[in-house]
Amino acid sequence: MRISMGCDHSALDLKNEIKSHLIELGYEVQDYGTFTKDSCDYVDFGLKAAQDVQAGTAERAILVCYTGIGMSIIANKVRGVRCALVGCKEAAVLTREHNDTNCLALSAKFTNTSDALEIVRLWLETPFSNGERHKRRVEKIKAYEEANL
User: Fold this and answer.
1) Which terminal Cβ of the chain has fewer Cβ within 10 Å, N or C?
2) Which of 7, 65, 83, 103 is catalytic?
3) Which secondary structure element, helix H or strand E, spans residue 2, and what is its range?
């Protein structure tokens, strides 16, 4: 599976930890940066990773910024991307099972490295439930997106 990543300057260390872990697990990673702790705009890096999901060149994206909020906002502006800001293991599972999310946003401020690695693992390994109500809801999101973006 190919995963695109992006972060801002405040999340560089956490992004690098996640990236190394993903590579160890055998995932292919496209890292859009940032690559330094110089102040930057999260939008520039999150957008590139989310656009990979839109284009089908990555199956998933993982985005990290100070709170995770900004990354989730920009990713959800990209047609076809369903990004969830996740701060706990249970939410990582539920967002895949119920929402078929293809983009994960994490907070470098509020998520420690060991929890982030476990959240990422659970999110990547959990399949969409294909439950009727969940499929119906995801289809409604897609229909709205097609009509309004």
Assistant:
1) C
2) 65
3) strand 2-7
Residue type, 73: I
Task: Tally Cβ neighbours within 10 Å of residue 148.
Answer: 7
**Domains detected in the chain:** 2-148 (3.40.1400.10)
Is there a contact between 85 and 105 (Cβ–Cβ < 8 Å)? yes
Name the pTM for this structure: 0.97
pLDDT in tens, 66-97: 999 999 999 999 999 999 999 999 999 999 99
Task: Tell me 128's DSSP state.
Answer: P
- State the catalytic residue, choosing from 21, 40, 83, 98: 98
CB atoms inside a 10 Å sphere around CB 139? 10
